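Handout, section 3.2

Students often ask what a structure token actually looks like in practice. Rather than define it abstractly, here is a full record for Transcriptional regulator, TetR family. The first block is the sequence as you would receive it.
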Amino acid sequence: MAQQDWRALKRDATRRRLTESAYELIAEHGYEAVSVADIAEAADVSVPTFYAYFRTKEHVVLPDQDLAWISGHLSRTPADLPLPERIRVGLHAIVAEIEQHARAESIRRWELVRAEPALRRRAYERERASAGALAEVLGVDLATSEGAADVVVLSACLSASTTAFLRWAGTSGTRPLVELIDEAFTALRSI
């Protein structure tokens, strides 16, 4: 095995240990009662090692979004669709990938987010941070009045998406996530 492959495997294993330790400790003691030092100790790493992987405790559960991954899905949606429909179709593709590769972890993550106010705040911060980057991918011109309106629509769609994920967690994943997304987007259309 090449030296670089070994290092990558070691980094991935450490990240998984930190994440698993955080999830277990938060589930057992509550989010506020768990410190970064607690997580590092449970994962058998130092606090500086924790910070080499995550900026904050919140980032263990809700890391920065992979905007390139999200953008890739959204950029493949038909440009002639209305903006909310493009986003909904892109979300369906994202959910299909989550269902295939990370369903259990995603449910667990969103159950923690749903249960903890600090993590819900972080989820909404991620949502707002994503809007600008996704606007560019979707061809929204932020300098125009129409572009400003589209950013409002985009933000509402992202909020609908977050709401769907939280509702999904509330059912422990028993309701299909795409169904919950569609319900949230139907609610948006009724406004």
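Discussion prompt for tutorial groups: The mean pLDDT is 91. How would you have guessed this from the sequence alone?
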